[in-house]
Amino acid sequence: xxxxxxxxxxxxxxxxxxxxxxxxxxxxxxxxxxxxxxxxxxxxxxxxxxxxxxxxxxxxxxxxxxxxxxxxxxxxxxxxxxxxxxxxxxxxxxxxxxxxxxxxxxxxxxxxxxxxxxxxxxxxxxxxxxxxxxxxxxxxxxxxxxxxxxxxxxxxxxxxxxxxxxxxxxxxxxxxxxxxxxxxxxxxxxxxxxxxxxxxxxxxxxxxxxxxxxxxxxxxxxxxxxxxxxxxxxxxxxxxxxxxxxxxxxxxxxxxxxxxxxxxxxxxx
Amino acid sequence: xxxxxxxxxxxxxxxxxxxxxxxxxxxxxxxxxxxxxxxxxxxxxxxxxxxxxxxxxxxxxxxxxxxxxxxxxxxxxxxxxxxxxxxxxxxxxxxxxxxxxxxxxxxxxxxxxxxxxxxxxxxxxxxxxxxxxxxxxxxxxxxxxxxxxxxxxxxxxxxxxxxxxxxxxxxxxxxxxxxxxxxxxxxxxxxxxxxxxxxxxxxxxxxxxxxxxxxxxxxxxxxxxxxxxxxxxxxxxxxxxxxxxxxxxxxxxxxxxxxxxxxxxxxxx
Lengths: 269, 269
Fold this sequence. Notes:
The structure is a homodimer. The first copy, chain A, is an alpha/beta fold. The first copy, chain A, has a single domain (3-250), classed as Rossmann fold, CATH 3.40.50.300. Helix content of chain A is 44%, strand content 12%. Chain A contains 10 helices and 5 strands; from the N terminus they run H-E-H-E-H-H-E-H-H-E-H-H-H-E-H. Chain A has a 5-stranded parallel sheet with strand order 2-3-1-4-5, with helices on both faces. Chain A is globular, with a radius of gyration of 20 Å. The N and C termini of chain A lie far apart (52 Å). The mean pLDDT of chain A is 96. The A-B interface holds A 46, 50, 54, 73, 76-77, 80-90, 92, 121, 123, 178, 181-182, 185, 189, 191-192, 194-196, 199, 202, 256-260, 262-263, 266, 268-269 and B 46, 54, 73, 76-77, 80-90, 92, 121, 123, 178, 181-182, 185, 189, 191-192, 194-196, 199, 202, 256-260, 262-263, 266, 268-269.
């Protein structure tokens, strides 16, 4: 499957309503075939991670953003269970603590940027500071507007210093969110995930979509592209995400490190 | 399989030479059956982790220690690939940095202790400060000797504050280490793992065994027990480790959190 179709070209306007949440374009197969292909890709991802970690030169940062119930947790579970946690770190950015709020908004995310050989997965990220912050007016517009440039500059620096950045927006429809909220409420094993406040956020759906469009448009760059991943169907979402990650890692020149010199003829006694 | 046979009873002397590195006691089956059982246990571990993470009350700390080539990395890969990395963190403690050395030896490990809902895996740990430090005389004996008590007190505090601690010593024979070193030297995809200095450490085998015995004896407690895991055969090692972890988690009262009150009758529109 070609991943370009999901990438947001730098400098292009983004209209989320124009982008399908259910498309299975570019994949000739049904759900079962898609799941099988995802298993293959995830296996490949595990192999690539092993070399990435051993080589300890490249760094991979994956940013996951989405509306509530779009499947951030589910994507991590589906795609990264099967990848060695040694070298793979997930950081969930929740409501900032007092300490975090006492710093600039990039301070807390910077600490969790990947080291050489690592994959860092951000479950939410610094993008919340131009999303929820904008929708709820937590800081003045003139302030959050400047953040697009900070973020682009920050990501540029990371990329220049050896970090490969992949940003994924899991795109679901408002109808699908309702279906998932109702499921959570009805299922005793999922009910704890539901907060009454989730419905207040849902009322701001359109505001969030506008905020996402603006953020994605302002920050999709050649060195840190955004992908809009159709996410109404979990199997297709997992397939697309794993294909994006495999293609991204395969484009790097991953290799095991050279052995120390002087090992020839060494005897183990 | 009963895991008590691997546990070091508090206050008992530990003689590693008396403990088998190849035993398959307590498991009625061959390698294929053992591998199959490990797959089942690892699947169960994944389920338990999901509830641990959701519940966000218990914390699990796993300390992995072993001689070189005993399989610390391999154990993590085998047992934790298949567990959701969201909520599972591996920290590899290498030679301390200048910053780390400028602090007490527990400073760097404390930062990586698990939060509520998390599994933290230490690949090497604060135990290096009574192992390599002792064998190489990096600090005076009167100083490292006092560390057993610091460590016991530190772990006691972690346990009192809600951390379940499991310490695993992967026990291989000196012969098996030689076999694995030779394999590393001969295999181009593994050769990078070999350091000529590994052979110098191997010469101190007996010193390390004495250091492990003293450390394990001094710090195996009811709240932070050591397990000596026979590790000459990878399949058996994986089986024992996964059984220990499953039994440990099953002994906790893991459950999904209660849902927010007031959700009854809520309509998603």
